[in-house]
TrEMBL record:
Residues that span the membrane, as ranges: none
Sorted UniProt keywords: DNA damage, DNA recombination, DNA repair
PANTHER family according to UniProt: DNA REPAIR PROTEIN RECO
UniProt record similarity statement: Belongs to the RecO family.
One Pfam family, short name: RecO_C
Name of protein: DNA repair protein RecO
SUPFAM superfamilies, per the entry: Nucleic acid-binding proteins
Function as written in the Swiss-Prot or TrEMBL entry: Involved in DNA repair and RecF pathway recombination.
Gene3D superfamilies noted in UniProt: Nucleic acid-binding proteins, Recombination protein O, C-terminal domain
HAMAP family with a match to the protein in the record: RecO
Gene (UniProt): recO
């Protein structure tokens, strides 16, 4: 008669490339990190003892946003156990408006991305956004990424067609309906809330082409992004926007 044998479930260690989106202290010396990972999407990982001096503390000093990391973790729960953490490239340092723009992108992903759902296209767009922030033209970088994020969430902005399926005309006015699109209207509404959701066809077509040199187009694009993101962000203010305002004062 065979002896009963115990089967131990082994937890696989995952290693992935990614970026730190947000971190917060946990207990005396540990940190809970939100990462955007190339193969795993947004993942929360607990790294123990990284706020201490010594070897573990050296690992903690790698936990800086915008620089690519090699992240190893395991665990079956939503909060993973961190293992190895290594630099995967030269560090990237954003300052001033670049920094607060990057923090804004990070906060959007922490708030809107579901955990452990791969988003490889968005990961590539984020890498591009970080490098583009270093080169300036912040409006273009932010607006492009916001649209990519909305598309990833299943709410792609279609700017060249109205809700009836007709091409957007540069000489017409359109009312934006969140998660539906742009409806042709023949006169501006008197209601101030509706008025805020109106866009000229000329501006919509320029936004579609990412042409933000005209300040009126840049302002319209920013307004549109806020309207499109608002239903998904809810009532809680974005901390990065508040920091940006304080920096600009």
């Amino acid at each position: 008669m065979n002896e009963p044998c115990a089967v131990w479930a082994m937890t696989m260690v995952n290693t992935d490339l990614g970026y730190l989106l947000h971190s917060r202290p946990f207990r005396d010396s540990s940190v809970i990190c939100d990462f955007l990972l190339q193969q795993h999407g947004r993942v929360s990982v607990l790294y123990k003892g990284v706020r201490k001096a010594g070897k573990q503390g050296a690992k903690g000093r790698l936990l800086q946003p915008f620089s690519q990391l090699s992240v190893s973790f395991d665990g079956r729960n939503e909060l993973k156990a961190g293992r190895v953490l290594e630099s995967a490239g030269a560090p990237t340092f954003l300052v001033g408006y670049q920094l607060y723009s990057g923090l804004y992108l990070n906060e959007l992903m922490v708030r809107l991305l579901h955990k452990e759902e791969p988003v490889p296209t968005l990961f590539d767009q984020y890498q591009r956004a970080i490098q583009d922030l270093l080169g300036g033209r912040l409006e273009m970088v932010l607006r492009r990424f916001e649209r990519e994020l909305l598309s990833e969430l299943g709410y792609e902005l279609t700017l060249q067609w109205d809700t009836s399926g007709d091409p957007v005309s540069a000489t017409s006015i359109y009312l934006y309906q969140p998660d539906q699109g742009f409806s042709l209207i023949h006169q501006l509404p008197r209601d101030s809330a509706l008025h805020q959701r109106c866009f000229s066809g000329q501006h919509l077509l320029a936004i579609q082409r990412h042409e933000y040199d005209d300040q009126a187009v840049a302002s319209a694009a920013k307004k549109l992004s806020r309207l499109a993101l608002a239903p998904h962000l809810g009532d809680k203010p974005l901390r990065s926007r508040e920091l940006f305002k304080q920096f600009a004062q």
